[in-house]
Amino acid sequence: xxxxxxxxxxxxxxxxxxxxxxxxxxxxxxxxxxxxxxxxxxxxxxxxxxxxxxxxxxxxxxxxxxxxxxxxxxxxxxxxxxxxxxxxxxxxxxxxxxxxxxxxxxxxxxxxxxxxxxxxxxxxxxxxxxxxxxx
Length: 135
Fold this sequence. Notes:
By secondary structure, this protein is α+β, with helices and mostly antiparallel strands. Helices cover about 55% and strands about 25% of the residues.
């Protein structure tokens, strides 16, 4: 059975992962069939590059993505695009659906960043209030 999974590379405390198609029996960093992408979790923001054609090929021949690889494929929108193709949508519909999906993802990211900024500000305010009351 072929799996789409992550293969660790990089140096100590600075991981870079290759997204590979590999035999399920092979070790994590061992023999693989093909490199189909790259994931850099330490980059700000995280960097994911995937060869869509090769991922579609491997999924088409029955490769199973691991949960982590599947979440990365979902984050890039590849699984959503493949699902639209499978449903028989036209190319124009797929392009418009993917544009809407990109907008939803960017809105979700902006909302998450706003929440994070509010929490950070609330924490600073609480620390300032605690310091003022301590004096």
